[in-house]
């Protein structure tokens, strides 16, 4: 499994180039990054060279389509999706991910119908470029009642929805935080197949009751109470070999330097990977 980074939780990083340099300097192997901006700044050949020189691959891109809003907003974003897919594919990236909030102000059945059709369209566009779509179920309890109607927030519900979307390139973005806030076990991971997982996020949770864990209250790997060794071992046992990317969401922006925060990330990865025997 590749050690990966997203920019979330790393402070004020000034550019893609700085992000790539810091990731490489600290032994990371994958970055979640905006492929379009990287290609626009360097050309495809230049971006490939920059990544290769730093020993990095693109772990995943974000879905640049607002599928939760109106039909007009959704349709307006589709050209951006094709552009992002083309850039990602040119850089060898095969993953695009989005999150699914666990409640909605629309009727749940209505929202499910809209979202299923829209995400199927996104998956079809991505599939034309050889890219998979990862759906991230979101587990923190406070978000389950943040909006009027409950939606979905568990592994099984998300897998059922993926089946309903009906495109072979759709799978899970599997996040340790959401696994934990659902009361997930290593056995739950071992029930999955590696091909059901598109991408993985890793982060840790503070020592508070699980019902009080906030989505933007995450801590760095190895600094909290999640069984990240078991999480990684479960993924390894089912044969997952993709990127495991840190994503730290906090209520306040970090004040420490990006250099120190990436070093802190490296220390956390070293700790939990060693505990997992990886």
UniProtKB/TrEMBL annotation:
Domain Xylose isomerase-like TIM barrel: 20-252
Keyword Isomerase among UniProt keywords: yes
Keyword annotations from UniProtKB, A to Z: Isomerase
Molecular function via GO: isomerase activity
InterPro entries in UniProt: IolE/XylAMocC-like, Xyl_isomerase-like_sf, Xyl_isomerase-like_TIM-brl
Protein name stated in the entry: Sugar phosphate isomerase/epimerase
Classification of source organism: Bacteria, Bacillati, Bacillota, Bacilli, Bacillales
